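Re: the request from the purification team.
They wanted to know what the chain is likely to look like in 3D before they choose a buffer screen. I agreed to run a prediction and write the result into the notebook, where they can find it.
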Amino acid sequence: MKISKINENGIITFALEGRLNTATAPQLQDALTHAFVEASQIHLDFSKLVYISSIGLRVLLMGQKTAIAKNAAMTISGVSEEIMEVLDMTGFSDILTIV
């Protein structure tokens, strides 16, 4: 997976490309951990994300919990139908802020 980071006006955006799975989830977790130190608004662009596994979902859940604990925000956009179906089936669409 490729993660591109853009920091504009205090908002950090991560554009994810490829597959968020066991091999790549630690990379996103590390990026989110550092981002919440730098900014109070984190945005994830899923427009080029093609797959998400359960470990990827866990990283998103940890990111959301961190955002709440730090009185910050984490939003997600560009979610494909396939990934949205996974988020709906697991109940994550109710937990995450999808714009």
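For the purification team: Strands lie at 2-8, 11-20, 41-52, 73-77, 97-98.
Please add any questions underneath this entry.
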